[in-house]
Amino acid sequence: MEKLWIVSELFYPEETSTSYLLTKIANAMSNKYDVNVICCNGKYDKEKENNNKDFNVISSINIIRIKGSKINKNSNYIFLLYKALKISLNLSYCLFKRVARHDKVLIVTTPVFLLLFISVVKKIKGIYWSVLVYDVFPENIRATGKMKNSSRLLYKLLKKLFDKSYSYADKLIVIGRDMEKVMRNKIGHFSVNTEISIIENWAEVNSITPRISDNKDKITLLYAGNMGRVQGLLDLINIISLIRNDELIFSFRGTGALKSAMMDLVKSKKIRNVLFDGGYSRNKQSEILGSCDIALITLADEMYGLAVPSKSYNIMAAGKPILYIGNSGSEIWKVVSDNKIGFCFQWTEKERLIEFLNNLSTSQLETLREMGNRARKLAEYSYSESVILGKYLDII
């Protein structure tokens, strides 16, 4: 049986979205390939408990675990880059020692330097290399504001290096139409042979059950997930501070680099209808997502084509309408607007967004639930695990 190597920092039993996705892909691919996984043994998110009985790995999959680092994702940026470099090199060297010519290799784009090292392995070993593009480097680093304007020369050098590395792949798998456009522009100067395919994230329709919230006199808008630098969350808090609607509650669940700053901003502006809570395990998704009436998804304009929030699809599975704030050309905007499963606003439409939120009332709860029902049906027929894994089996 032909060998498939999956190389990732994160894999089972981690419950991050990357680990969950790759474990499911590995399980599906075991029917077609002799699957071998190279990963780290560190713990990424200590706040999450792994007690999901539906999340496991098939025993026939050979897992090689190398020593990892217990990284706090909110640590000093230079320290994080050093750790990413070290992990990328170790993972790549482990693959280099074991992989044979014409073996198939699948990686994701984290840690950041893995792509660069695997491109060298590709040139030396002659592997068939597929890249699942979750992050677009170095554009996403600049989008976070971590690369200063004074580093323009460094950015140009990094961009050329990464663009060329992406172009060495036999296949790039992107997760949105906006990302496909970005990737075609990136590799266009270097390769005409690299194939680009779109495979969306899937919705966990089997494990997430739609629930109607208990709210009757309030509308709860829930933001669940990473509170990082690319979601525009401080701007969102500032917008919330201008809303005058006693029927709205804004709930933020999760962790991230900006959570403390968000809480401080809420306190300083004396906003009374904003609540914060911690992270939650994957098997709590039905309960957490089911507690809201509208789910919030935000993405800064600078992130156009650089990311597609994976939580969007589980929100659909939960049967909740989406309030999306971001670029009008993004994948999630198109999914929400084309299928009438929520509301979309650009960051420049601040006044229109405030007016919308001020006019939201419990009299619209039935309309919101109808939108949620459409979202659930869309998840079942277009984005279920079986549908999306079928695309991976066809493409890899």
UniProtKB/TrEMBL annotation:
Gene3D superfamilies for the chain = Glycogen Phosphorylase B
Q: Could you list this entry's UniProt keywords, alphabetically sorted.
A: Transferase
Q: Which InterPro entries match?
A: Glyco_trans_1
One annotated GO molecular function is:
glycosyltransferase activity
Q: Name one GO biological process term.
A: lipopolysaccharide biosynthetic process
Cite the Pfam families for this sequence. Answer: Glycos_transf_1 (PF00534)
The record's listing under SUPFAM superfamilies reads: UDP-Glycosyltransferase/glycogen phosphorylase (SSF53756)
Transcription in keyword set: no
- Output this protein's name: Glycosyl transferases group 1
The organism is Bacteroides fragilis
